[in-house]
Amino acid sequence: MQMEPEEKNPESKYGEPRKFDPTFKGPIYNRGCTDILCCILFILALLGYFAVGILAWSQGDPRKVIYPTDSKGQFCGQVGSPLEKKPLLFYFNILKCASPLVLLEFQCPTTQICVERCPNKFMTLVKALLKEDDREYYKQFCKEGVDMTKRAPEILKDGLCPSILTPSKNFTRRCLPALETLKGGVVVVGNKTTFRDDYAEKNINATDFLEASKKSNVVVEARAVAMRIFEDYTQSWHWILLGLVIAMLVSLIFILLLRCLAGVMVWVMIIMVVIVIGYGIFHCYMQYASLKGQAGSDVTIKDLGLQTDFSVYLQIRQTWLAFMIILCIVEVVIILLLIFLRKRLLIAIALIKEASKAIGHVMSSLFYPLLTFALLSLVIAYWAITAVFLSTSSDPVYKVFNTTECMYSRDTCEPETFNSSNITAECPDAECLFAFYGGETLYHKYLILFQFYNVFLFFWCANFVTALGQVTLAGAFASYYWAFKKPEDIPAFPVFNSLGRALRYHTGSLAFGSLILAIVQIIRVLLEYLDQKLKGAQNKCAKFLLSCLKCCFWCLEKFIKFLNRNAYIMVAIYGKNFCTSAKDAFFLLMRNIVRVAVLDKVTDFLLFLGKLLIVGIVGICSFFFFTGKIKIVEDATPTLNYYWVPILTVVFGAYLIAHGFFSVYAMCVDTLFLCFCEDLERNDGSSDKPFFMSPELHQILSIEKNAEETDCAEVPVIQVQAEEEVPLQENGEVQLKEQG
Which parts pass through the membrane (predicted)? Predict the structure, then answer.
């Protein structure tokens, strides 16, 4: 009498097992709408998101990101403008960029104009006025309308021309001094170490130009990298699209082969992953060995520092050594996992075979990731465009710049009325120049909130699209599992019907689950933002606390993703609200916790190897193509600033595509697993309560039972007896035994 409550306690802790229901035949069709309040909230949030987008598009101007801006706030090189043929920005006095004010106001306090090309020779204004040819050459670097017949002091007083020209090069559409460093560390500009400014009657060292260029680079360094990357995308976008199409074809072919030859393809996948990573180790070693003895190859990454030209890192041995060590660690970890999980692999392969049968009967599920990919692309594009327009929706702000002491220095000014104001009378050398983009209106005050709202809705919408795909596939595969006679009892168009049920009844539940995940993700973004802002000032205690918070929220995000995924399966089957479905899914998994670790996670590991294989194949091919190492198509290889830009884009895109296709298998396995656990609780395999699982899937259970008895003898394991040995209890439950 005292033993029965003790045996039922473990089960009651995670809810009561499902009871036998003769009317249950899979996903319930007579269902109602769930989480209506969340559905209304999501619709209102979307309307607000559209309003923010319209407001941003009406106020923003992406040209502020693409084109450099002169002192009048005009865009250099803008198509359809008077400056269309003048794409480069020229500084009258680059030495003023060495001022500390550059770091505070992000603007060089000197006149800046748009020019057609950078100066390629040294020349002073005083000498240029002596010859007609030099005068015409110098005039293109002066303001429009300058009278070159005037004397040099008069021209320089009005700020119409620079006092000196130095050989310059185009760097991110800006003319910066063409600096070179000779042996011994001597800095030169155009083979000269000093320059004579005739008007100022002083010598200028080339090192002064170096310091000014560095300070001006502080303003444009991040933008320089962004512009170079943007140029690489414009040169290679069609090849990137081709690489993504190839990745899609490889993924589709791999999935089709996996459907037909699941066992063979899994072993091929495992062997190929080991071979691909092994080739990566070999390639890194060959590059490491080839750089031995070359000048500069022994420089460490720490000594090299942060460089915008990332190809420099590939010219030092330490980079390839680091790559080789990382790949060796990955290879060893994968091999050890394969050795220790060798018995579980057979069970997981059998489960993948069963998933292949399900996908074979629901072939349309293979093409559903295309819809998910299209919707995610739409969400990402809307977020990116809105972010660009929000970041460029500021007005040009003009400031007073001067060389002598002036009480109006750095005050806001208006170029149209500046010459008639009293500022020019009190400060004759003062100029009203463009400083930055900003604003003090109500819209500009709340601009940071609009950016935050844009990021939050991006997470919410992206998670919603992912959730829609998960609940749609779960409903389709649940229809397959709970069909007693396969394929006769499988309903027509299972994917389409499941999608319709999800949108009609469960938009609120999907929005609820997505909202919870989006809140955690936005908190992680805020923690990263705080980490960057407080990096220089934080003490060790604050740093430790922030690291703990980041780790905790990372774990929380992973757990919520896992819980949401299984909750959506229960939503697809029973049509209940999100909280109830999440509770039922969690309790069902906890009642079968050993099988979760044995079957589900090992299968996820095998599918991850499949993604890794596709990414490795596409990544290696793109590396050889964009580095020009394929002789047949060497002429077609585009000229790039950073060849790693298209390679990483193709690799990242290939992973997303492979993840999209393999997510069908992963969702199929998870759905079959939950249905499998429910089937064991509802039925006992007798003629009155037959299993809905196939004989092969029932055999997997037997294999799993034997594996548990062999490998997990010390772990309490829930086991089900063979079909003919299961005695039927009065309440219709399968008799469960716990063995040690």
Answer: 36-57, 237-257, 264-282, 320-341, 362-385, 457-484, 505-527, 605-628, 640-667
